[in-house]
Design brief:
The complex is a heterodimer.
Chain A (H helix, E strand, L loop, with lengths): L1 E7 L2 E7 L4 H16 L4 E8 L5 H13 L5 E3 L3 H10 L6 E3 L2 H6 L1
Parallel strand pairs in A: 2-3, 3-4, 4-5
Antiparallel strand pairs in A: 1-2
Chain B lengths: L1 H28 L2 H10 L3 H15 L2 H13 L5 H19 L7 H17 L6 H24 L6 H9 L4 H15 L2 H13 L5 H22 L5 H31 L4 H8 L3 H20 L3 H11 L4 H6 L12 H27 L4 H28 L4 H34 L3 H27 L2 H12 L2 H12 L5 H34 L1
Helix pairs in contact in B: 1-4, 1-7, 3-5, 4-5, 4-12, 5-12, 5-14, 5-15, 6-7, 9-10, 9-11, 10-11, 10-14, 11-12, 11-14, 12-14, 12-15, 13-14, 17-18, 17-19, 17-20, 18-19, 19-23, 20-21, 20-23, 21-23, 22-23
Classes of the chains: A alpha/beta, B mainly alpha.
Chain lengths: 106, 530
């Protein structure tokens, strides 16, 4: 899994690529926690390049969301990831956007 | 020959169904009271040896006795440490039985099947069903052995078998091999030893050859036990391997001793037996008894060491670990608050089993793994139910504690229902996985619901307000319905059967989401009442 980050205005964008599952959840979790430790207040996780998010991956996002005072933003969900979000009810916990730009606009 | 093969196969089928029936019904019977009684009866290893004697007297087969004991182990009625002295008794007293009359158990098996079958199917109250079912299982187990045995009997009249007998004349090794093969096939070393007595009396074989047939029979019985226990894991495997090792130990010591005695004329076992009786039949019976007594004398003082060694080489399976209580041990103490706390801690372990079921579904490990997890869940569920029953019946509880017990009882019911839903979901998803679309639905459904379950586990263990709120939000969404509608409306490539499976799977998912949300609320309410 590759993770890059960028500060765009007040929003910290984390771009993930690869599957977010049991094998990669720990790496992704560490990266997101590092961004929060560095003071990120508004976090947008771009999942455009993520093929699948398992329950372990969802927990990583949930852990990050619990540390934020505002809602975690996610964007670029493919159809399969959208279905996992729908079934798990995560669409009600996060702000979900179609694209990174819409996520930045809030 | 086809009939022989068919009889062997049919007999094995009856044997395995009998073992399953026995295990399942013993589980229903094995309440805490009965477990405590069995524990008392077998606490003393010497008493255990005598119980083993009773087992072999009834079963006439060490392999059958081993599997009945494995059934009792799996039902939680006995531990490995309690079983080992019983196994020694099975072997030791089995040797004594050769010296006395052998009963024909066939009539008894038919009577047992007839009576218990009628009780099992017609008991209006259902209270006798577990006992009748267990006894019916024993009957089927023996019918299976008997069917195989009866199917094999015509072999004795077959030319090649007669030739094998004739060719073994004068050869100890062939006698040993004949005993091993025959014991494996008829599934009773005892029967082969008794047969060798008949050979001896008919002057077909010499005493020395018959001794080797008897020794071979023990090794054949071990091979049979090894073969039948191949699919077993953990403690069940420990018991089977004890029996295998017991006979092999006897063979390793006594077969070389036999050759040493024959070729050096130094008196050992044969000479000792001859001191007791001039009858060759009795001498054979005594040598056979010595084969069992030597490993028994070596092993009995080191039961503890045997238990530890077996446990090292055949460690408990993950399912056995899961089903074993960690908090609710035999004595939970007199303080009802403490007992309640232990019940709650044990109850959260049920959630771990549910979580492992999702792992098994994710990796599509199949119905066998799911059955094992169900067995673990049911075992632990029963322990918790009994502890709750004991708490309410043996203590004077305060009103607050009754309220708490009621809440925990409701959670227990919800978790049991969730387990049933997960089992049903697993079966539906396995069927769905045949198509690419079905595979995808299975993948998203398993990980989606598992994420909710993991949050429920956080709520149950951490008692955190934020987790409870998040779980509430997650389970109040109607996302599953959206996914279901999308799959059913858009995909025309699915056939009618797959659509029905998808609908059924989605229904199970929706019920699980509701159950997890409801259970989360119950856990949160419990945390607030602390």
């Amino acid at each position: 899994m590759e993770i890059t980050s960028e500060q765009i205005g007040a929003v910290t964008v984390a771009r993930l690529s690869g599957d977010l599952d049991t094998g990669t959840a720990a790496i992704a979790g560490e990266a997101l926690m590092a961004l929060l430790d560095d003071g990120a207040q508004t976090l947008l996780v771009n999942l455009e390049a993520v093929g699948f998010v398992s329950s372990a991956g969802l927990r990583v996002l949930l852990t990050a969301a619990k540390r934020l005072s505002s809602k975690l933003r996610v964007c670029g969900l493919n159809e399969t990831v959208q279905e996992v979000f729908d079934i798990s009810g995560f669409t009600s916990i996060f702000d979900v956007y179609d694209s990174e730009q819409l996520g930045l606009d809030g | 020959m086809l009939l022989v093969l068919g009889s062997v196969l049919g007999g094995l089928g009856l044997f395995f169904v009998g073992l399953k029936l026995l295990t399942e019904n013993l589980k229903l019977l094995s309440g805490r009271r009965l477990r405590e009684k069995v524990a008392t009866w077998t606490r003393n290893p010497f008493l255990g040896v005598l119980w083993g004697g009773l087992f072999i007297t009834i079963t006439q087969s060490a392999a059958a006795a081993t599997f009945i004991l494995i059934g009792m182990l799996r039902a939680g009625m006995l531990t490995v440490r309690q079983i080992l002295p019983i196994m020694i008794g099975v072997n030791l007293i089995g040797g004594v039985i050769v010296l006395v009359l052998v009963f024909d158990v066939k009539l008894a098996v038919f009577l047992l099947l007839g009576i218990t079958g009628m009780i099992y199917s017609r008991d209006p109250s259902g209270s006798l069903r577990p006992a009748a079912g267990a006894a019916f299982g024993v009957g089927m187990l023996f019918l299976g052995l008997n069917t195989t045995q009866a199917g094999i009997a015509p072999m004795a009249e077959m030319a090649w078998f007669k030739e094998a007998l004739a060719s073994s004349q004068g050869s100890y090794v062939l006698g040993f091999l004949l005993g091993a093969v025959f014991s494996f096939v008829v599934q009773s070393a005892l029967a082969v030893v008794i047969l060798s007595l008949a050979f001896l009396q008919a002057d077909l074989f010499s005493l020395e050859q018959c001794v080797m047939i008897a020794y071979g029979a023990k090794v054949g019985s071990s091979a049979l036990t090894y073969f039948l226990s191949n699919s077993l894991r953990g403690e069940s495997r420990q018991v089977a391997m004890f029996q295998v090792t017991f006979n092999l130990l006897g063979a390793v010591i006594l077969v070389p001793a036999f050759y040493f005695e024959i070729y050096t004329d130094i008196p050992i076992m044969m000479a000792l037996a001859a001191q007791f009786s001039s009858s060759e039949s009795i001498q054979l019976g005594l040598v056979n008894l010595m084969f069992n007594a030597v490993p028994a004398l070596l092993v009995f003082p080191g039961i503890g060491l045997c238990t530890r060694t077996l446990s090292r080489y055949f460690p408990r399976s993950s399912e056995e670990e899961l089903s074993r209580p960690q908090y609710l041990l035999e004595h939970t103490g007199d303080d009802p608050h403490n007992a309640m706390e232990l019940i709650e801690l044990e109850q959260t372990r049920l959630l771990n089993i549910l979580s492992q079921s999702f792992d098994a579904m994710r990796d599509d490990l199949g119905s066998k793994k799911m059955d094992s997890l169900k067995e673990s869940f049911d075992g632990l569920d029963e322990v918790i139910q009994e502890a709750m029953h004991d708490l309410s019946s043996h203590h004077q509880l305060s009103s607050a504690l009754y309220d708490r017990l009621n809440a925990v009882l409701n959670i227990q019911r919800s978790l049991a229902t969730a387990n049933q839903e997960i089992q049903a979901l697993s079966a539906q998803l396995s069927a769905l996985r045949g198509s690419a679309r079905g595979q995808r639905f299975a993948r998203v459904a398993v990980d989606g619901i598992d994420a909710i379950l993991l949050t429920l586990i956080d709520v149950a263990k951490e008692h955190n307000e934020i987790d409870a709120q998040l779980l509430g939000q997650m389970t109040s969404e109607d996302g599953m319905a959206r996914v279901r509608k999308a799959y059913l409306a858009e995909d025309e490539s699915m056939d009618a059967a797959s659509r029905m499976q998808l609908l059924a799977s989605a229904n199970h998912c929706e019920r699980l989401i509701w159950l997890f949300g409801d259970t989360g609320q119950a856990y949160h309410a419990l945390a607030l009442s602390d």
